[in-house]
Amino acid sequence: MIDLEIIVPDGWAQIPAGSTGAGDRARIIDELVRGHAPADAGKAGPWQRALRHEVTAALDEASRHQARTVLLPIGDFDGVRLPGSLFVTVVEDVEEGTAPEQLFASVLAGAGADGTYLEIGGSQAVRVSTVSSSGPAENRMPSRQVKYYVAHPRIPGAYGLVTFTAVSDGDVDADAVQAVVLMFDAVVGTLRWEQEAAAPAPVTETAGDPVEQPAEVPAVASTGSTGTDEPTEVLSTPRPSAPSRRSRLGRPVVLGVVLALAVLTGAGGLAARRAAGAGEQETGNRVSAQDVRILVGAASSCTALTAPRLAGQVMVASSFGDQPVAAMSGGGAAGVAALTPAQWQENVPWEGARITDREAAVTALAHHMCRLVGQARTVNLDEDPWRVALAAHRLGMEPVIAAGGVPDAADEYVTTVERYANWYALQPGFAGQAVVPSPAPAPAAGDTVVPVPAMYMPAIATAGKSCPDMPPARIAAQIMATSGFDPNKLGAAGEQGIAQFPPRVWSSTVKAAPGRSPWDPAVAIPALGRTMCDLIKKNGGYTFALAAFTRGDRAAAVTDLAERVSTAQTQYAKDSRLQPVKKPSAPSSAPSSARPSRTTTGPTSAAPGRTNQPAVKGAGASGTAYGPYFVLNLATGMCVDVPNYQAGSVDGPVNQFPCAKTGDDNQEWTFEPRRVDAGGSQLYWIRNVDDGYCIDPPGNGAVAERTALNESNCFDDDNQYFRLEPRTTSGGFAYYWLRNSASDMCLDVNGDADGGPDTRLSLFPCKANDDHEWALVEKSEW
Fold first, then answer.
1. I need a labelling partner for 218 at 20 to 30 A (CA). Which of 183, 245, 397, 427 fits?
2. What PROSITE patterns does the record tag this protein with (predicted)?
């Protein structure tokens, strides 16, 4: 018999679910409630009624999900009752030949950003998190539910299904709910499989007999169903003296369907008839590398979409042809995505887009589906929002609402799209591919190291600032060795784009956001720098990091690839455009080759009475940092800002926002003297106090006008130096142009002195009567 064990804290109860008779179940619940009553007699009645209701609801939910064992935190945890429940099913005899990778890929394909692959006790597993909202007719609070699917490491076709639900008082993202989720995660992390000849003898009762549990015997409950003539096996748990106890959960449920895991993937009480086929596959047409790039990019429009889901929808719409198939051509539908004129007009992705453009059509479909998914979540049907959105795409939302889910008229369409999506999830190139892909073959060696295309230099320079171990020459060399600077390359094992990100690496290391795609070099190249730096730190060297990046295993052999990178790096190191930025050094008063400062017509000194301003000329500099200051714009009245209220991130945007004059924010900056230019002006880093990053134009040289500014690690011999040019005085504050010495342009708010909150800052040729004047204001001066 297959058993699994979970360690639970003190004060938890384990009770059977399944086919227990109504009378037996009532007796079990009554015994459990009476055995855990509080000492205060005045609180016992209400407490017992609430607990009885909670246990009954948990058992009902477990029965709907075909579970056989329920674990409940009955006792206090540091004085607090944990509002939740956990139930377990063991699934055996899943169809022979169906590997865990296939099962888990199907689950992940439907979970989108809410699914995670992991290992538990050496076993492959998937974790899926969902939020369940209470409707007006429901007598329950919103909750967060997390499901684990755990493969048996030695017995093919055996899986453990563990589901826990954390109930909220209305806010499923509250700290208290998150703490309960973390506690349940820790419990599930103790799961281990066992193979035993026979189950330990359970503690049993017959009708009318009290429940007894020997104190020294580990808590054990059988999860098998019982007949009417058999005693009901039950475990009531008086509080033991040990800090934790190990629960063995045996007697598997036998389900002979291909993807029995899908029985528990739906929210609430989804019908098993849907789940039985939820993981089935239908073979689709092969997709070109260009179409994979389009699908992956479009799927970033919202977290509910994945590239396999969009691929399944396009397959049904047009079989990846240029026009809809006959069954999808009604209502004037056109293009690869079979969008009707109304759907196209509502979701045109950019000005001048045409429905015959494959990228425009697929992007419009993605926007349309994201909109419908949002509506599906609002109407709160007991159904996967993506399925609801698919049905609404086919029929409209009103028939779906009237049917309370997917109507029969749309069921074939929804099911077919799902089956194609499951198949595409296993194909190379899609982010939802099999969880444990085959090792990627090393790219073929090239005979010639080609020059780095100029268009990629700014992104490579930015990536080369991530850490000393990944200078620009090595970034360029790795790209050369893996993709040959081909931004549309699809690797043999699904590697994507110019940086050849394996989908598993991209999804696990790059923060998801609309428009962020491994097919976009401006996004992928800086992400490659950050990812490789992180892997070098974790794996102890570049070669190990390269193996982890390309093969998923630091011990994999990548000798040939590493040699090609080394050869290319040696050549690229001679390119003056790819020189590494130097580490920060002590400030110097020696003249540099930077441009001399311009002569200005404005005032040449700070406002009278203020002695806290940085020196304009190097001769008056203190050699230490000035500030911190709010950097206040004269025209807009707003301050230089980093998004949100905490430390920013490398390559994060620099904006303007209303000044946080009294509260805590991230708007204070120091001016750190670095060098003196040929005209005698002091050059400064402008460094954020909260995260330590400097205002940084992309790349490491001059940039074009209107180039948006980021913040990044601070480097000398880069393009991060600014000088102060006094312009005017207003309200007792001196206002300066902040001129970038590398580009000879000023810190600018996009627009004509009319930018609002969160407007991105950039560089623009300095001019009067715009929004180029900035004051440096200490917090005490507001």
1. 183
2. RICIN_B_LECTIN
More confident residue, 98 or 260: 98
Q: Which residues of 279-315 are buried (b: 16+ CB within 10 A; e: fewer)?
A: bbbbebeebebebbbbbbbbbbbbebbbbbbbbbbbb
Rounded Cα distance between 720 and 465, Å, is 12
The torsion angles phi and psi of 710, rounded to 5 degrees, stand at -115, -175
Most confident of 260-274, 420-434, 443-457, 628-642: 628-642
First to last CA, the chain: 73
Tell whether the model's pLDDT for residue 244 goes beyond 70. no
Which tokens sit at 474?
Answer: 């090595």
List the structure tokens of 469: 């171990």
CATH class of 618-781: mainly beta
pLDDT range class, residue 62, cuts 50, 70, 90: low
Residue 504: closest CA among 447, 580, 425:
425
Is the domain spanning 289-424 CATH 2.40.128.280? The answer is: no
* DSSP string of 499-534, one letter each residue: TTB-HHHHHHHS---TT--TT-HHHHHHHHHHHHHH
Per DSSP, the chain holds a count of helices (H) and strands (E) of: 18, 27
Taking each helix axis as running N to C, give the angle between helix 358-379 and helix 307-318, from 0 to 180 degrees, rounded to the nearest 10: 110
Look at residue 222 in the predicted model and tell me its pLDDT.
Answer: 31
Longest dimension (CA), the chain: 101
Residue 441 — pLDDT band, cuts 50, 70, 90?
A: very low
Distances 298 to 121, 289, 342, 424 between C-alpha atoms, Å: 37, 14, 20, 15
Q: Cis bond leading into 202, ω under 30°?
A: no
Angle, to 10 degrees, between the axis of helix 542-551 and the axis of helix 472-482? 40
Query: Could you tell me the pLDDT band of residue 723, with boundaries at 50, 70 and 90?
Result: very high
Cα separation of 602 and 425, whole Å? Answer: 63
515 or 464: which carries more pLDDT confidence? 464
Domains 289-424 and 454-578 share a fold: yes
pLDDT reported for residue 142 = 67
Residue extents of the structural domains in the chain: 2-254, 289-424, 454-578, 618-781
How high is the pLDDT of residue 313? 97
pLDDT at 714 over 80: yes
Sign of CA dihedral 267, 270, 276, 282: negative
Q: Say if domain 454-578 classifies as CATH 3.40.50.2000.
A: no
The length of the chain is 782
Those residues with Cβ within 8 angstroms of residue 756's Cβ, 6 or more apart along the chain or in another chain? 636
Q: What are φ and ψ of residue 123, in 5° steps?
A: -105, 140
Query: Residue 747 carries which side chain, given as an amino acid letter?
Result: L
Nearest to 255 by CA among 104, 63, 94, 17: 94
- Average pLDDT, whole number, for the chain? 74
Q: Would you give the DSSP letter of residue 79?
A: T
Instruction: Give every CB contact of residue 141 below 8 A, 6+ residues apart in sequence.
Output: 134, 167, 168, 169, 170
User: Please, are residues 434 and 422 in contact by the beta-carbon 8 Å criterion?
Assistant: no
State the alpha helices, DSSP H only, in 250-381: 272-276, 289-299, 307-318, 341-346, 358-379
